[in-house]
Amino acid sequence: MAGAVLPALLPALLPAHGVGNRGDLPLPFTALVVAAAAALLISFVAIGVLWREPRLRATDGWLLPSPLAGLLDARWFRGLARALAGLLTLWTLLALVVGPDSARNPVPHVVYVWLWVGLAFASMLLGPVWRVVNPLRALHAGLLRLARVSPDLAALPYRWGLWPAAVGLASFTSVELVAQENTSLGFLRLLVAGFVAVSLLGAAVFGRTWFDHADPFEVWSALLGRLSPLGRRADGRWVLRTPLHGINELRGQRGLVPTVAVMLGGTAYDGFSANLSWATFVQSSAVPSSLLKTATLLGFFGLVALTIWLASALSVRLAGEPLRRSIPFVSDIAPSLVPIAGGYVVAHYWSLWVYQGQYAWVLLTDPLGTGADLLGTADLVPDDTLIRPTLVATIQAVSIVVGHLLGVLAAHERAITVLERRAAVIGQLPLMVVMVVYTLGGLTILFTP
């Protein structure tokens, strides 16, 4: 029965990233907000007293067993991962080109659920996996190999940092959250064709460094992959470590602040746009809904960037530094927003990933819409155990609070590294205020019906 009913519900289900509301919380909402703010403030005072010197070192970590470390580095294992990713890509392209333009087509699920959300969860667990399995990177490398030219071939040097990735992420976020008919086959054909064309053209002009810095999905995966417990020690050996170690290795670079602002602002807008009052306002406004939604989404991006810059400017002034130091300082502090963005991703996309990620298998078994069951998953009924309302609400609240706690710790470690200790502690006060506001805003957005 589920296989027959769910397809009709897909247009409504795809944009709905959470099933919890304020009433689902195991604690009263006010108590949760007070506890979250208290946790951040107490942690800030505690680390200011106890965390006096930089503690995160590149030599930290618990070594993985040799067989497991060897497996992660094995060429055959990485080749197998690339082959599976390539097979899924071809399977999806088949459905994109000749599949039905209906809710039975698996392409929207592959793009919006597996690629966007699944990649984020996989990266937070395993590291920057898209760099390994990116089919366009593999295609580019294969074309260069066939042409018998150096894999480092580039017509021009690349100088734009992460700015193209920020633009790409902002564009995709707009497509996912704002664009009309974003699940129609014609729209997806244009989207995929345009992305492939830009990627291959960028790689042809700037070489494979384009994928490292400009590909939005590789940058998305790489930044969230900093939260992975898997990492390499200074000597190159695989270790288990805290998420803070990966974040601490991330250094400020051109375009990092707007990229992180897009990551955080996009998930914040996602929760905000699910608010009933906002939906009512959009429907009753004389301004076209797409224009109003786009402007609001851009406003969320700008708000994150502006608040982190203002906090950094106040921080350097409180630390006795000249205001011009705020530009490099905001770039130094920007990595501390990555754990917050990761917490928002878990909070906003958990139910979508758990349920719709399973249902994608039902659609993938019949890419051409002929009634076939090529994968034997046509009768799969997604398990809803992990998306019960109270559990989802708990996961949402915990992920936001933990993400902000990690952000506080990461900001403190970076501040005492680049500033004198006493000045660093005092200078973090504006950042602490911003993170408390982010926490309260995030919880309010999630749990306000």
TrEMBL record:
It comes from the Bacteria. The chain crosses the membrane at residues 28-51, 80-99, 111-130, 190-211, 297-316, 337-355, 391-411, 423-447. Keywords: Membrane, Transmembrane, Transmembrane helix. This is Fenitrothion hydrolase. It comes from Terrabacter aeriphilus.
